[in-house]
Amino acid sequence: MIPGIGGRGMNPKKMKQMMKQMGIDLEVLDDVKQVVIRLEDRDIVFNDAQVTIMDARGTKTYQITGTPEEIEHGVEIREDDVRLVVEQTGRTEEDSRRALEETSGDIAEAIMKLTEA
Questions:
Q1: What is residue 21's three-state secondary structure?
Q2: Is 114 exposed, middle or buried (0-12, 13-18, 19+ CB in 10 A)?
Q3: Cα angle vertex 58, ends 54, 63, to 5°?
Q4: Cα–Cα distance for residue pair 46/68, rounded to 1 Å
Q5: Which CATH code of 2.40.160.100, 3.40.630.10, 3.10.180.10, 2.20.70.30 fits the domain covering 12-72?
Q6: What is the pLDDT of residue 9?
Q7: Count of alpha carbons within 13 Å of 48, Cβ hemisphere only?
Q8: pLDDT for position 38
């Protein structure tokens, strides 16, 4: 632990100077509009993000603070898949699309779902 840091606080200017002596540079990005972390099944979006870059001897670490919002990715349903389900089941495009959405795009499962009903 570094003396003077923590509950009692330290002068930010002195803190920055001390970090510089240890070979650590801090940079605050002022004009950040949005930060998006894209995952396979969802995005984590920070619309009120504050970003600080810490550079310790060439290794940069990004710190993001703000309020995260998780947005789930929707399933992309291709028109070819809808037509195939229509052809195999004789159901409407609307029914076929809905079945594909409910089965996360699984064509075989959508066909089974519509032929069982």
A1: helix
A2: buried
A3: 20
A4: 5
A5: 2.20.70.30
A6: 65
A7: 4
A8: 94
Please give the CATH topology (third level) of the domain spanning 79-116.
Helicase, Ruva Protein; domain 3 (1.10.8)
Using the predicted structure, report yes or no on whether residue 117 has a pLDDT greater than 70.
Answer: no
Within 10 angstroms of residue 29's Cβ, the number of other Cβ atoms is 13
What six digits make up the tokens of 38?
A: 């894209």
Separation between Cα atoms, residue 10 and residue 19, nearest integer Å:
12
| Percent of the chain's residues with pLDDT above 70 | 91
Query: Counting Cβ atoms within 10 Å, is residue 17 exposed (0-12), middle (13-18) or buried (19+)?
Result: exposed
| Contact of 99 with 114, CB cutoff 8 Å | yes
Fold match between 12-72 and 79-116? Answer: no
Cα distance from N-terminal residue to C-terminal residue, the chain: 66
CB of 44 within 8 A of CB of 36?
Answer: yes
User: Is the sign of the CA dihedral 101, 104, 110, 114 positive or negative?
Assistant: negative
